[in-house]
Design goal:
The chain is α/β, with parallel strands linked by helices. The protein has 15 helices and 15 strands. The structure holds adenosine monophosphate and zinc ion (ZN).
Length: about 475
């Protein structure tokens, strides 16, 4: 069965409605989008980067549609407790103690690592990276609004959201308040009116990152209120898209909806999108298993961060993705094939202007159609590889090659961002590729296809590969 979707209209899966919907921006031609960013207590691992690569893909796909995107990703630098809910210690402070460093210095260190990783991964910078600690007044104002409207209550210097005051609580995650309250997942906290209520503001004289506000001298925000307040500041109370990893659905995003809708009496977000977790060796990435990988670990084994980018982007964001070294090597090889394809198209085009090519138009349409179908990147890439295979098999004339090159560099790479113009490795041929080209040249000569044989020799020469005919056969080395 084929799914008929107009090529230009983006269809995206909404966690809230559990359906794929036609995307309609609130303001014509513009999109406001917020992503839950890293908690900056440790350098983000490659699993976190699956979520951030997804955010980047989404932005680029929206831009390919001609939409103007305003993108915001927060940095959580206070208030994210070790159990994701209201109990446990602040992750920042636990780590700062372990590293014997001031938590404020830790924020700086990890944020710098994060930004350098984003650059290495070819992730376009968001327009704003608000930090929680720099938006305390906005959070206080929102908590005051919730208190004023009877959605929140104070117990000493702690303030909780009353989930029973918001009938839609649970709609995003499919949780029901009665089941949550009966469930063993929630720690019983005697202070709260109901076990499912969550903290908006906490107070603790031992907390290092704390503020003196209208709520008392030793306060700090709950993790959920941070994203409600910061998204509103940069995108307004009602905006288009909010994303995160699958673990953000509950409690984090469920609580954000409750806070924002109740504080503003307005709808909050139209489209909620979530990435599936990156797994490692078929299971969870966890410190105790020793399988938490950083970008550096990949680079140490000779992989480019763009190989990881390609590994992530070639599978669907809602599908399971299991990280293995073999899978990464496979992605690196496929990326190399695309780079070789680009090099070959450049050589074939030889400066000729792009001309009409039915093959390229077909690939372009298939690529865009696949992306519009809930960002089906694997189908989009299949269209690119089909064009590559056709070109290798049948060849393209110079103007068609130029148009294929434009498609590859302007359309495909504007969305996937897998070619690195700065990286010489990107233009280098792999050994296997060199040998395949040499074999192809030998066959071309055997069948007296001198033009092809010369073209291959030129391509190899351009990449610094020197061929030597010796009595014992053909040898090659890099210049
Ligand atoms: P955190 O630093 O824990 O606040 O997480 C930052 C982002 O990474 C959140 O959107 C998480 O949902 C996401 N995330 C965490 N672990 C993974 C994983 N293994 N795969 C994909 N996303 C993840
Ligand atoms: Zn968030």
């Amino acid at each position: 069965m084929t799914c008929i979707i107009p090529a230009m209209e983006l269809h995206l899966y909404n966690t809230l409605t559990r359906r794929i919907e036609a995307f309609e921006p609130l303001t014509e031609g513009k999109v406001g989008m917020y992503h839950c960013g890293p908690t900056v207590y440790q350098r983000p691992h490659i699993g976190n980067y699956r979520a951030f690569l997804f955010a980047d893909l989404l932005r680029r796909a929206l831009e390919l549609q001609g939409l103007e995107v305003l993108q915001v990703m927060n940095l959580t630098d206070v208030g994210h407790l070790t159990d994701d809910a209201d109990d446990g210690e602040d992750k920042m402070e636990v780590q700062a103690r372990k590293d014997k460093i001031d938590p404020w210095k830790l924020v700086e260190r990890v944020s710098a690592q994060f930004f350098s990783d984003l650059e290495a991964l070819g992730i376009k910078p968001a327009h704003h990276y608000p930090r929680a600690t720099e938006h305390i007044p906005e959070m206080v104002e929102m908590v005051e609004a919730l208190l004023g409207k009877g959605h929140a209550y104070r117990v000493g210097d702690n303030i909780y959201f009353d989930v029973h005051s918001f009938p839609a609580y649970g709609r995003l995650s499919g949780n029901r308040i009665d089941e949550l309250e009966a469930g063993a997942r929630l720690e019983v906290n005697d202070e709260k009116k109901h076990p499912a209520d969550f903290a908006l503001w906490k107070s603790d004289p031992h907390h290092i990152m704390k503020w003196n506000t209208a709520f008392g001298p030793n306060g700090f925000p709950g993790w959920h209120i941070e994203c409600s307040a910061m998204s509103q500041k940069y995108l307004g109370p009602h905006f288009d898209i909010h994303t995160g990893g699958e673990d953000n659905v509950f409690p984090h995003h469920e609580c954000e909806i409750a806070q924002s809708v109740c504080a503003n009496d307005k709808p909050f977000v139209n489209l909620w999108m979530h990435t599936r977790f990156l797994q490692v060796d078929g299971g969870k990435m966890s410190k105790s298993l020793g399988n938490v990988y950083l970008l550096d670990d990949l680079e140490e084994k000779g992989f480019s961060p763009l190989d990881f980018r390609f590994l992530v982007l070639r599978s669907h964001y809602r599908g399971q993705l299991n990280f293995t070294w073999e899978a990464l090597a496979g992605a690196a090889e496929a990326r190399r094939n695309l780079r070789d394809f680009r090099g070959r198209l450049g050589a074939q085009a030889g400066g000729t202007p792009p001309g009409e090519s039915a093959r390229v138009v077909q690939a372009d349409q298939a690529f865009r159609r696949a992306l519009s179908d809930d960002l089906n990147t694997s189908a989009a890439l299949a269209a690119v590889f089909e064009l590559r295979n056709y070109t290798l098999r049948e060849g393209l004339d110079a103007s068609a090659a130029a148009s294929a090159l434009a498609f590859l560099e302007e359309t495909v790479d504007s969305v996937l961002g897998i070619f690195d113009p700065e990286d010489a490795r990107d233009d280098a041929l792999s050994d296997a590729r060199v040998e395949a080209l040499i074999r192809e040249r030998t066959e071309a000569r055997a069948s007296k296809d001198w033009a092809r044989a010369d073209e291959i020799r030129d391509e190899l020469q351009a990449k610094g590969i020197v061929l030597e005919d010796r009595p014992d056969g053909l040898h090659w080395h890099r210049n």
